[in-house]
Specification:
The complex is a heterodimer. By secondary structure, chain A is α/β, with parallel strands linked by helices. Chain A is built from nine helices and eight strands. In chain A, the strands form two sheets. Chain A has a six-stranded parallel β-sheet with strand order 2-1-3-4-8-7, sandwiched between helices. Chain B is 46% helix and 20% strand. In chain B, α2 links the parallel β1 and β2. The radius of gyration of chain B is 15 Å and the shape is globular. The chains are: A alpha/beta, B alpha/beta. Chains A and B meet through α3, α5 and α8 of A and β2, α3 and α5 of B.
Chain lengths: 192, 163
């Protein structure tokens, strides 16, 4: 499964739900599917899951999607426990697993050594989890997660490949555009 | 402190406790206005208050000086870069009455770390003018759209009898 294709499925099925992109390729592959309700991180590696959790706490009327990387979540594994202990149910946490730090040259980390992020998530208390490696299986499980009323964690195994796309480098503009898209009057941001 | 937070509509207290913050958190827990969100590493709290702000709610971070060391990149590359306002309450270890040698250095480094990130801060050393200082810090924090450090000195909070 290619990350770009899977990202397209996420945006297609997300409806009006906000999507938080993790640092690097997780954000970069969102750019061809750019929309105001996408939030793009330029650094703060590991923080995507925590940003999405804060957003899920602030907006229980929305289902919040986060596209994380395996390297990123390995930097902030405790956030999986926090997602559960905070009690949020409106979070769909996707981790793209390419087996390492691709953007810095493909150094291996995590799954090549036997780290199973779905098992980690279940150990933290996630009840709804999946690991998928082809696009149709990903589409089916992501659709199920978006229609559910529980927190989900999905590990998507992806092929290698750096993204050539980049977001705006005006962080305050990215912030304001995203916040404005989530205002209740903006576009009827009801649960899709 | 909690009254000032309420006046600024800061409902979300994102924390990793120490004994000082534990007293504040116990008061907040008894008050339905506040929502307490515990984290497992302080850096998470920077992300969570960012997400709260993006979703239209205000939050504060409550941590110990040792935990500030765990937040520095997120403070610089998320909170400062994206201009996310929140009070950053830090209870200071290492300055007065410290019994633990491993608390000295990070505790003493707190003001310098915040200065290096150009994060403004005030230190609370007594109950005199406490409400005015916190209220002023919060007003500037949200005007500037940046974190603002509120450092709780051991002169205010006391120190442990342990030798």
């Amino acid at each position: 499964m290619q990350r770009l294709d899977a990202t397209g499925v996420v945006v297609e099925l997300a409806g009006n739900s906000p999507i938080v992109g993790g640092v690097g390729n997780s954000t970069f592959d969102l750019i061809p599917f750019d929309r105001p309700a996408n939030f793009y991180m330029w650094n703060s590696m590991g923080m995507a899951s925590s940003i999405a959790l804060g957003l899920a706490l602030a907006r229980p009327d929305l289902r919040v999607v986060v596209l994380d990387g395996d390297g990123s979540i390995l930097m902030n594994l405790g956030s999986l426990a926090t997602e559960i202990s905070s009690g949020v149910t409106n979070l769909v946490h996707v981790i793209w697993d390419n087996g390492g730090w691709e953007i810095t040259g493909g150094q291996p980390a995590g799954s090549p050594f036997g780290v199973d992020l779905e098992v980690v998530a279940r150990g933290c208390g996630f009840v709804r989890t999946a690991t998928v490696d082809d696009l149709e299986a990903f589409r089916a499980v992501f659709a199920e997660a978006m229609a559910d009323d529980q927190a989900w964690l999905i590990v998507g195994r992806i092929s290698p490949g750096d993204s050539p796309y980049r977001p705006s480098k005006n962080c305050v503009w990215l912030r304001d555009r995203f916040s404005a898209a989530l205002l209740p009057q903006a576009n009827g941001n009801a649960k899709p | 402190m909690l009254d000032v937070f309420r006046a600024e509509d800061i409902r979300n207290l994102v924390f990793l406790p120490d004994t000082v913050m534990g007293r504040l958190l116990a008061l907040a827990e008894a008050d339905p206005f506040f929502r307490l969100v515990g984290v497992h590493r302080e850096e998470e709290a920077v992300g969570i208050v960012t997400g709260l702000f993006l979703g239209g709610q205000r939050g504060a971070m409550l941590i110990q000086s040792s935990g500030l060391g765990n937040t520095l990149n997120a403070l610089g590359s998320l909170a400062m870069a994206y201009r996310i306002p929140f009070p950053l309450l830090v209870s200071l270890r290492g300055e007065l009455g410290e019994f633990n040698p491993a608390q000295l250095h990070m505790g003493r480094a707190v003001p310098g770390c915040l200065d290096a990130l150009t994060i403004r801060h005030v230190t609370l050393s007594s109950e005199t003018d406490l409400a005015k200082l916190v209220s002023g810090a919060l007003k500037t924090c949200f005007t500037a759209e940046e974190p603002f450090g509120v450092l709780l000195s051991a002169l205010l909070t006391g120190w442990k009898p342990e030798k």
